[in-house]
Amino acid sequence: MKLTILFGGASFEHEISIISAITLKEKLSTHELSFIFCDQDHKFYLIEPSKMRASTFSKGEHKKMPQLSLTNGYFEQKSMFSSTKHAGVVLNLIHGADGEDGTIPSLLDFFDIKYIGPRVDASVFSYDKRYTKWLCEAKKIKTIEYEVLSSNEHKNINIQYPIIVKPARLGSSIGLSVVKEESELDYALDVAFEFDRSVIIEPFICGIKEYNLAGFMAKGEFHFSIIEEPQKNEFLDFEKKYMDFSRSESVAKAELNSTVELKLKSTFEKIYKNLFEGALIRCDFFVLNSEVYLNEINPIPGSMANYLFGDFETSLELLASSLTAQKRAKTNYEYIHSISKAKGK
Amino acid sequence: MKLTILFGGASFEHEISIISAITLKEKLSTHELSFIFCDQDHKFYLIEPSKMRASTFSKGEHKKMPQLSLTNGYFEQKSMFSSTKHAGVVLNLIHGADGEDGTIPSLLDFFDIKYIGPRVDASVFSYDKRYTKWLCEAKKIKTIEYEVLSSNEHKNINIQYPIIVKPARLGSSIGLSVVKEESELDYALDVAFEFDRSVIIEPFICGIKEYNLAGFMAKGEFHFSIIEEPQKNEFLDFEKKYMDFSRSESVAKAELNSTVELKLKSTFEKIYKNLFEGALIRCDFFVLNSEVYLNEINPIPGSMANYLFGDFETSLELLASSLTAQKRAKTNYEYIHSISKAKGK
């Protein structure tokens, strides 16, 4: 399989994306991979595969590598007298802003480049946790109760402590706090508002079970990963999560009764269908008293949740080969012609 | 005011966008305008203002004009030995696909170009009528009851005839039918499915009043147009609507009691706030028994609904001058540095 991994982005998850890309390079070592880095100034660079290590970017060495620009159908590398095309399927591996907020999907769609990843609608509904709640309400999927706070707002919180405070639009646990009592609230809000104007507050439910399930649709059928019960030390802080993005070892299947397993899968399908086509996503669920609640949707999971798939390479190949091209509307200037005719011009 | 009007796009509303741009050229004749045309192959052209007439595009004459490409901060015109920058505020006047579905907003955001128009989230919620319904449910705004049909689905419709059948993702009444009895349904569905995989069905309510209100937020305050009661001949078909996009004459204010007027404005504010900032939008409402229902949101209304504003030019100037720049997240490679240190590298 030939695949171009697009990573980086102007995002708080920029470094995490680099780690994800390095992990996938190892995981997909038998494939023909290219690497395109989007830096924080939104410039694209073609990265020599042998230079795919963290220090290349932290030291700014990528700036010596060829710069690319987007053009219809491919990334273009221009030199004084020639131009090289970098075409082929792109894997959008930009976590957070740019990659998951709809920007990069729009760019790839506009320039007619096939890609693995959420389309613009799916991005908007998964990137902002408020909109994920709306999506779930519309699709009759349970979520934990919540409140929204804006940075310019003074409002009493009606949810009982302990609570979770998190920025509406960030993944990877960035800016997230568990608040045990009211005296700790202001600090947690300050932290969360560093990253977003809107904050989501949810109850922190002791003893709730957490399960992660990844999957995708290819050629009309769903393909699921195993279900993992992620390790919890209250929750993953950013540094632990950061290490989490470099996971490549297969994990053990969660101990689950088959009713709950079926419920998790059918909830995943409900979320995915008619919205996430083209993407491999990971849904993080809560289970309480055998009821399934959606926690969040990761439309570009860390290192593509490779560790959840028995045969990750085959899965990715299957998805890449089932991507369909976008149809562009065409006009034949029928109305302008008919009006010109009517005017006698 | 200097303003760049971006129009065209690969959309069923391509021709309508051309008409809109020509109308605005006349309406804003005292201003310094530039015109950038996005053709159906997603190429950008700088259009000589004196050539801003419908036949330029229907005859393909724009192809002889300078081609532009997007780069950080501006549209760039390259010639053999030099490059010219086209910077400044853009008015996104691409109706329908590309302009209103989030694609063009993402491109302008990515390349750091200030623009009047909906951002990507706002685009997704207004472009697809299903998502507009979800938005209204979340914000407790009334809408008409509805059902969704997918092209591969056979489903009984539980709404009583007469009904309205419309594609989920098209404006300008394209593909829309009023169906009086079941025998006419199949034909109406065929028409609507020509344009989209999803179709919205709503009851056609006789005697319902329709009101249009445009507005925007600038420097923290709302600015409203007058409220119009649009002419109805059952509904506007595409050809009539097409002519409608060239409107530039001021219209009469609708006769309305002040309670309903206030309700329309407060509903508009609820829809707009924290979502449509940066855009001048037109909301089309229904009123039945003094209750306000949202019909649809036009985030880029035809010819910017200029005919609804007492002083359109001042309004647009105010909006243009209140646009704020997007902040890009930056990283200092803190985590990569700390991990490298821990590893002793």
TrEMBL record, chains A, B:
Protein's recorded name: D-alanine--D-alanine ligase
Cofactor: Mn(2+); Mg(2+)
HAMAP family given in the database record: Dala_Dala_lig
GO biological process, any: peptidoglycan biosynthetic process
GO MF terms held by the record: ATP binding; D-alanine-D-alanine ligase activity; metal ion binding
EC number: 6.3.2.4
Record's catalysed reaction(s): 2 D-alanine + ATP = D-alanyl-D-alanine + ADP + phosphate + H(+)
Cited PANTHER family: D-ALANINE--D-ALANINE LIGASE, D-ALANINE--D-ALANINE LIGASE B
InterPro entries xref list: ATP-grasp (IPR011761), ATP_grasp_subdomain_1 (IPR013815), D-Ala_lig_Van_CS (IPR000291), D_ala_D_ala (IPR005905), Dala_Dala_lig_C (IPR011095), Dala_Dala_lig_N (IPR011127), PreATP-grasp_dom_sf (IPR016185)
Family that this chain belongs to: Belongs to the D-alanine--D-alanine ligase family.
Pfam families the UniProt entry points to: Dala_Dala_lig_C, Dala_Dala_lig_N
Associated pathway: Cell wall biogenesis; peptidoglycan biosynthesis
Function: Cell wall formation.
Presence of the UniProt keyword Ligase in the record: yes
A GO-annotated cellular component: cytoplasm
Enzyme class: ligase
Superkingdom field: Bacteria
Keywords: ATP-binding, Cell shape, Cell wall biogenesis/degradation, Cytoplasm, Ligase, Nucleotide-binding, Peptidoglycan synthesis
Domain named ATP-grasp: residues: 133-327
Source species: Sulfurimonas hongkongensis
Location relative to the cell: Cytoplasm
